[in-house]
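Write out the bound-state structure for alpha-D-glucopyranuronic acid.
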Amino acid sequence: MKRIIKPLSEWQFSKDKVCWENVLLPHTWNALDGQDGGNDYYRGTCWYKTVLSCPVGDDRKVFIEFDGAAMSAEVYLNGKLLSVHKGGYSTFRVELTGVLTGSDELVVAVDNSDNTTVYPQKADFTFYGGLYRDVNLIEVPSEHFELLRDGTPGIKVTPVVNLEKKTASVTVETWQNADRVEISVSGQTLSVNSIDGHACADFLLENVRLWDGVDDPYLYTATASLESGDSISARFGCRTFYCDPEKGFFLNGRSYPLRGVSRHQDLKGKGNALSKADHEKDISFIREIGANTVRLAHYQHSRYFYDLCDEYGLIVWAEIPYITMHMKDGRENTITQMRELVTQCYNHPSIVAWGLSNEITSASAVNDVLLENHRALNELCHEMDSTRLTVMANVFMLEHESPILEIPDINSYNLYFGWYLGEMSQSDQFFDEYHAKYPERVIGLSEYGADANIAFHSPNPEKGDYTEEFQCMYHEHMLEMIENRPYLWATHVWNLFDFAADGRDEGGKHGENQKGLVTFDRETRKDAFYLYKAAWNRKDSFVHLCGKRFAKRCGYETEIKVYSNLDHVSLFVDDWPAMELKGRKVFTFRIPLTADNGGKHTIRAVSGEFSDEMIITKVSEPEPEYAFNNTSGIVNWFDSDYEPSCFSVYDTLGELKKNTESAAIVNEMMSRGTKSRGDVAEIVKDNPALVRMMDRCTLISLLKQGGAPEEDIKQLNRILQGIHK
Ligand code: GCU
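---
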């Protein structure tokens, strides 16, 4: 009997098990409140139920498969708890055989409430709740391929390429409760024994066609079948890759700098309950901008999206949501989520690295517990997958000497100099210092970005004005920085799309992080999108006039900026003689703004057969609509939400000393102070009256008196905020 996979998309949904509504999957209960700001979206347990009418009596086996139940799920059949799954981003399955009666009520309790054991719990994105991906009923013959262990696909394909010989040796492994398995690859078929439920077959591909990134992402298929009729398959790609600390990333023996973007899996109005068409649309933007890599942050994305990356040759950084703050009771969940990610995504040729964590030292000290958790994850990845690299995305405050940087195979940093703090040029210095100090280490740029609201514009853009013009200026600098540092193994713009962070309320938007190069609804490509398209897209020639939305301009002259992947651009203003510029990517003109024609000017940028056009109008005063009055400044998302139930720099020294964890941090800080301030701290130490006086002071007052830099205070606060009172 062949395997039958039946989508279960019609469910009833309830927040209280009293009022039920019909819903279609994929579904999230935070589609709207998770994107409107206020950090007040519904987090709790909700219920989904449906009636199964599976025929019983024959020897078929029945499983239910969930592709995404966020963040935890309890699966009940006729009121009996069958399974619990903790982790909102991976596939898991539950066997129903033997408990089905022919007409059965299936209830799934799904929970996205705040807790201390399941990641993520503290991050700059909305933790949507719901059955937000597909659910399928799977019927297989009694002898079938493995379905339960870590949501396995039942088949694992390991191609090893020999570039000189143009061959690939392909090992196909399967897991099943049968004695023999027939395995085929590229017209070759082998029948092998299954020993202790595991089968293994080796193939040799001559004159192998490589999976060659965006240029030729060729996919082979391995299939496996049992006498019972069950069969499965997996596509795979033959490639080799490595990272050189000086020359960056290499694919199939050639330098292949990874230059691309990051992506969250959500959409305006739909939350994370995306359709295949939504995923396809996102991939089309990544292909249009010309990226050759995508960081799928901060969690396991849908199988279908990894499939699309395989098909279009995009190199992927995959990761688990071990993010921002280490939870002392969360270790097991990091292991489970990583085991499921690697098990389920192993066959995707697009994936080259497993991300262990993201900015985990933002709110956690680099102590033995944190280091051990990372070593355990690093070892797990290497045990499960000897073909890929492990990586970490580090927060910009993490000092270069931190021992945590020595754990993964390679590293990247999230840098926001020029947006959250400091100047853009500090990114250049940051990498030059790191690379000079550690020339043998591979380093990349896992995040960088600046928020822009397409409503805001300025002729004199500056940090924090949320204008498109500043975002362009920022990315022009960063692109230059990147192009001058080929040793960066990979760089990922944060983010390709605006996304939901319900705790944000800035830049004229509620609940959105606006660092995207494309708006949250995918309706508008911001001007900066075209800068990268000019740098990376070698296929589709174009000319893009920036500033179409900056239509009302005052003053006697204005800048007209053109992005293009062609090497010359002519600018026509009304019927004035053309101005022509030769160059690369960015073409900047300055034109007079006259009152002729009522101040209306038609601007055309032309290069060969490609052109773009816009109309701007001279006005007497700056357009008030374009200005964002930034009263709150740029608040880094993890500094805004102060958690009173946790320690902070606003606590007194005495309070902080009462808790072992916070006392350790304060003592370490004080001992550093002793070293750096010598006698003063020594005197305090030995003077009880002074100690008592200091114990009554808040830590922030002492730090400010000591001249501690703002960033150090924020970093210490983040760490203390990770300790519950
Ligand atoms: C961090 C974090 C992101 C976040 C970004 C930002 O680097 O990794 O998840 O969205 O900063 O502040 O925009």
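---
The chain has 14 helices and 42 strands.
The first helix runs from residue 276 to 289.
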